[in-house]
Amino acid sequence: KFNNLPAMSEYKDEKYRAALTESLMSPDKDEVDDANKKTGRFISHTATYRSTLMSKFLDAIDDAEDPSPPATGKYTVRVKGEARNLPLVAAKKIENRARRWMVLTAWLALPDNKKFDAPSYILDNGQVWGDPKDPEEILAGQKRVKEEKRLISSRKRIKIEAMEERGKVSAKGKGK
Fold first, then answer.
1. Three-class SS of 25-53
2. For residues 86 and 74, what is the distance between their CA atoms, to the nearest angstrom?
3. Which of 91, 85, 7 is CA-nearest to residue 46?
């Protein structure tokens, strides 16, 4: 649906595409009536962590024409339910993590939610939003530093083992 946004839509910008990942979507549940029978509608519960901008973007996506309608021509109606206090999901892949613009600052400031203000949950927005670097660059740099430290550590270990073989090392912690 992103590609079917109107040409003049403020949301038809690649910087918004990061929000279209499954881990950030609302959970939909079948609506049931009083007799506990399915009504043929879905209830969609938004997360309370969503920023106003994120909500407006997703509303625009929902309003866009579906590029591949169901073969029957009948859509399942989606009804907005009440917002729920859903947690952010930790993700290994960068593309599955939330960006700062997607998360309500007030929600993140709550004591129970401070744990989500970590790179495994939320990344900076990136250059398209005015940040100096993209999250991918920052994480690649951190990974590179970690690898360099590992190499230095392994070189030290090899050097110490060589010294031990030659008998040049005294008891641990003791100088010669």
1. CCCEEEEECCCCCEEEEEEECCECCECHH
2. 30
3. 85
Q: Which of the 8 DSSP states describes residue 106?
A: H
CA distance linking residue 165 with residue 157, whole number of Å: 12
How does pLDDT run along the chain (176 residues), one tens digit per residue? 778 787 788 888 888 888 888 888 887 788 888 888 888 888 888 899 999 999 999 888 887 777 677 777 677 777 888 888 888 889 888 888 899 999 999 999 999 999 999 988 998 888 777 777 877 776 777 777 778 888 888 777 777 777 777 776 555 665 55
Q: Which amino acid is at 23?
A: S
CA distances from 5 to 9, 36, 129 (A): 6, 37, 20
Buried b (16+ CB within 10 A) or exposed e, 46-69: bbebbbeebeebbebbeebeeeee
**pTM, to two decimals:** 0.65
Backbone angles phi, psi at 65, to 5 degrees: -70, 140
